[in-house]
């Protein structure tokens, strides 16, 4: 039976944690210290994302416990929740995520209030959010194997989550930069936007390589070569193929941004005629973001389905 509430919470949790980690990382490699809050209203985004991540984690706990126990989500089944929390892997991962998000929220709040130590606070938020997003590996198929195979699968899933989160969060940062109202766009903002676009182009290459490599490992573990030809005959397979198609579309848009639109944007800044190229960048990044968000929804759905036998 399709549990839309659980899929919805998983989807929202993936998105919020990706935004928290990816936006923090993007602000560190893409912007200078003095630009981060002025360009992105960074601290409000980070504090809000961390708190929302905590609330969604609580919602996931309640829905997952009720799903496993076969009881309604309300009234809350405390025995089912206690049973889930005492489960060796899933319960420990949930507790680690909550602690990591509390640390991220606290560090972001302190950095917002005190200018001194903001860089240190940002690094702490990034590390804590990286831990938080990594714990999602224990809520999916990555934790279903045992022994050496299980550790390989978990490591691949963790790297896949981190790389994917870095990409989604960077897209959020780029949207915030390119969508600034025309009245607030000046030469300084245009230059830092171009620098951020160029910086993400370099980092994006590493992220794509990581996503492809870990995706191949994950596919080998969950599907196996013997089941590839039959993917289109199952719901899991069709969702996986849709995810791959959207990923290819994101690659195409990212290449367009890096090799065509970003250089054109640099030239347009020099000629003081940036509106046309900036509009094209907005459209391209928006479509790329929609593809990325849709992929998160598919991942949330796929995590509730049984994958094909690997055949290994």
Map the helices and strands.
Layout lengths: L3 H27 L5 H5 L1 H28 L8 H8 L2 H26 L4 H17 L12 H32 L8 H36 L12 H36 L4 H28 L10
If you had to describe this structure to a student in words, what would you say it looks like?
With 312 residues, the protein is mostly helical. The chain contains 10 helices and no strands. α8 packs antiparallel against α9.
Concise summary:
By secondary structure, this protein is mostly helical. The chain has helices at 4-30, 36-40, 42-69, 78-85, 88-113, 118-134, 147-178, 187-222, 235-270, 275-302.
Q: Could you list some keywords that capture this structure?
A:
single chain, mainly alpha
**How many beta-strand elements?**
0
Uncertain residue segments: none
Overall pLDDT confidence: 87
Gyration radius from CA atoms, angstroms = 20 Å
- What is the distance, rounded to the nearest whole angstrom, between the alpha carbons of the first and last residues? 28 Å
Order of helices and strands: HHHHHHHHHH
Largest sheet: none
Helix content: over 70%
């Amino acid at each position: 039976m399709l549990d839309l509430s659980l899929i919805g919470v998983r989807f929202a949790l993936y998105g919020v944690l990706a935004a928290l980690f990816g936006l923090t990382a993007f602000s560190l490699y893409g912007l200078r210290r003095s630009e981060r809050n002025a360009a992105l209203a960074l601290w409000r985004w980070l504090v809000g994302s961390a708190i929302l991540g905590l609330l969604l984690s609580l919602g996931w706990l309640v829905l997952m416990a009720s799903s496993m126990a076969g009881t309604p989500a309300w009234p809350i089944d405390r025995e089912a929740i206690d049973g889930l929390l005492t489960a060796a892997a899933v319960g420990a991962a949930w507790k680690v995520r909550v602690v990591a998000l509390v640390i991220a929220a606290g560090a972001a709040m302190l950095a917002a209030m005190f200018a001194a130590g903001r860089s240190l606070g940002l690094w702490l938020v990034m590390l804590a959010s990286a831990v938080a997003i990594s714990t999602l590996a224990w809520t999916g198929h990555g934790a279903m194997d045992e022994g050496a195979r299980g550790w390989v699968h978990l490591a691949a899933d963790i790297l896949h989550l981190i790389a994917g989160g870095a990409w989604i969060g960077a897209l959020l940062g780029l949207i915030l930069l390119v969508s600034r109202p025309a009245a607030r766009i000046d030469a300084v903002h245009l230059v830092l936007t171009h620098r951020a676009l160029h910086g993400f182009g370099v980092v994006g290459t590493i992220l794509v390589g990581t996503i492809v490599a870990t995706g191949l490992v994950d596919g080998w573990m969950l599907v196996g070569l013997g089941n590839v030809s039959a993917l289109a005959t199952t719901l899991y397979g069709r969702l996986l193929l849709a995810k791959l198609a959207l990923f290819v579309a994101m690659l195409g848009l990212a290449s367009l941004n890096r090799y065509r639109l970003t250089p054109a944007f640099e030239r347009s800044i020099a000629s003081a005629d940036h509106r046309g190229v900036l509009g094209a960048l907005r459209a391209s990044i928006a479509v790329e973001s929609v593809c990325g968000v849709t992929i998160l929804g598919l991942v949330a759905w796929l995590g509730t389905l049984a994958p094909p036998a690997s055949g290994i």
